Structures are given as C-alpha cells and as structure tokens.
C-alpha cells in the first residue's frame, strides 16, 4: 500500500498546484534594453494554460507597444510614455513563442 500512498500524495500535490494557479516550470525569460526602453519577454509552462507567452515593454518618453504570439493566438498591448505595455497569449506546450516590441 505504500505505492498507493505515494500516488495519493502526488495527486494531492498536483491538486494543490492547480488550486494555487499552477507552478511555473520550464520558464524562459529575458530582459533587455532596446529602442531606449526596457523589454521583458519569454514563456513559461504551467498546468493550465499549458504554455503562456508574454512581452512587456516600457518606454519613458514615447508611445509604444508589445506583442506576444504563439500558435495562431496573439495579443498586442499599447501604452503611453512611462507605462508598461503588457501582452500575453497561450497555447499548447509544443508551440513556439514569438515576442515583439515597437516604438513608432
């Protein structure tokens, strides 16, 4: 019965992770200074949704945007100078995340 105890413990741990919003695992993230602003981008795996792709950009003196694309899903957010544009999209874990920033 030790085996069933271990499985039950794993099931409880998984259920706890789901209730807590899922544990971020397999995260790929970076921050860079580009175009005179700060760009934070990447992706992470979790229980649901399986893979989230994000792109956040902040420029202190210009209107700007950021885009996150994965599979056929995408999100673009626009922001005024001094504020973060925050874009995110999600799909299955096997899909590739593409991120962009823009300052016209």
CATH architecture: Sandwich
Biggest sheet strand line-up: 1-2-3-6
Round the mean pLDDT to the nearest integer and report it. Answer: 82
Strand content: over 45%
Radius of gyration: 18 Å
Characteristic terms for this protein:
about 100 residues; alpha+beta; Immunoglobulin-like; 4-stranded antiparallel sheet; 3-stranded antiparallel sheet; about 15% helix; about 55% strand; elongated
Description:
Keywords: Signal. InterPro entries: Lactococcin_972. Residues 1-29 form the signal peptide. Pfam families: Lactococcin_972. This is Lactococcin 972 family bacteriocin. The chain is of the alpha+beta class and 104 residues long. It has one domain (24-102): Immunoglobulin-like (Sandwich). It has one helix spanning 2-19, and strands at residues 25-34, 37-45, 51-58, 64-70, 73-79, 84-91, 97-102. The strands form 2 sheets. It has a 4-stranded antiparallel β-sheet, with no helix packed on it. It has a 3-stranded antiparallel β-sheet with strand order 5-4-7, with no helix packed on it. A hairpin with a 5-residue loop joins strand 2 (37-45) and strand 3 (51-58). Mean pLDDT is 82; it is low at 1-24.
Task: Describe, in short, the structure shown.
With 104 residues, the chain is α+β, with helices and mostly antiparallel strands.
Secondary structure layout:
Blueprint lengths: L1 H18 L5 E10 L2 E9 L5 E8 L5 E7 L2 E7 L4 E8 L5 E6 L2
Antiparallel strand pairs: 1-2, 2-3, 3-6, 4-5, 4-7
């Amino acid at each position: 019965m030790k085996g069933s105890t271990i499985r039950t413990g794993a099931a409880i741990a998984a259920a706890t992770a789901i209730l807590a919003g899922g544990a971020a695992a397999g995260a790929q993230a970076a921050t860079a200074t580009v175009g005179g602003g700060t760009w934070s981008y990447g992706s992470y795996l979790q229980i649901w949704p399986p893979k989230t792709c994000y792109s956040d950009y902040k420029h202190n003196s210009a209107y700007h945007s950021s885009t996150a694309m994965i599979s056929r899903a995408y999100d673009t957010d626009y922001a005024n100078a001094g504020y973060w544009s925050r874009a995110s999209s999600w799909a299955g874990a096997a899909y590739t995340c593409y991120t962009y920033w823009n300052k016209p």
